[in-house]
Design a protein that fits this description.
With 181 residues, the protein is of the alpha/beta class. Helices cover 39% and strands 14% of the residues. It has one domain: Rossmann fold. The chain contains 7 helices and 5 strands. α6 links the parallel β4 and β5. α4 packs across α5. The protein is globular, with a radius of gyration of 18 Å.
Length: 181
């Protein structure tokens, strides 16, 4: 985020720390409200969707999306999954058609930086990676296809491994960050 701010000093950066302030899990009231057509919702259903609307609004207002996440047990951590469950909403961010789901959000550059203690994309690969294909598929569901990934691997292998991974990430970000919006 510091690199983005330095490159685009006038950019409005919205940071949402899902680890520090995780979205609530989708409960029965939210699930019912999400499936209900908007014209049938009352005050109770609108209140149940307030967090979802806030998160979708932030996403709709963005020109660039940056997701920084650890890999937990080969996949997304619970707070990121909760965020996904709020922003992937039928008739709001995607519509269902006989041909499948169609995203309703405009595409935007999306940078995903993942961190893992071990290795999953380079040698010595010791674990599968379900996080990358899942995020690619779920973001496409809502209309976001321009997604680039960078994996910080071996983060549990000591300070030298961490330093190498971070230096690689900085170089990648310098290449990926768009010159202008």
């Amino acid at each position: 985020m510091a690199r983005l701010a330095a490159r685009h000093p006038s950019a409005r950066i919205v940071t949402r720390d899902l680890a520090a302030d995780p979205p609530p899990y989708v409960d029965e009231a939210r699930a019912i409200a999400m499936l209900m057509p908007a014209e049938q919702r009352g005050a109770h259903e609108e209140a149940a969707l307030a967090c979802s609307e806030t998160l979708i609004g932030e996403l709709e207002a963005s020109d660039l999306l940056v997701i920084s996440t650890p890999m937990h047990n080969y996949s997304v951590p619970a707070p990121l999954k909760a965020w996904i469950d709020h922003v992937v909403r039928i008739r709001r961010t995607f519509r269902s058609t006989p041909e499948g789901k169609v995203g309703m959000l405009h595409d935007r550059p999306t940078l995903v930086v993942t961190a893992a203690g071990g290795f999953h994309s380079t040698e010595p690969a010791r674990q599968p990676d379900y996080l990358t294909p899942y995020l690619r598929a779920i973001l496409a569901t809502i209309g976001i296809h321009d997604v680039a990934f960078h994996n910080l691997e071996g983060m549990g292998r000591g300070p030298e491994a961490v330093a190498r991974a971070l230096e690689g990430a900085r170089a990648w970000l310098d290449e990926q960050l768009p010159p202008g919006f």
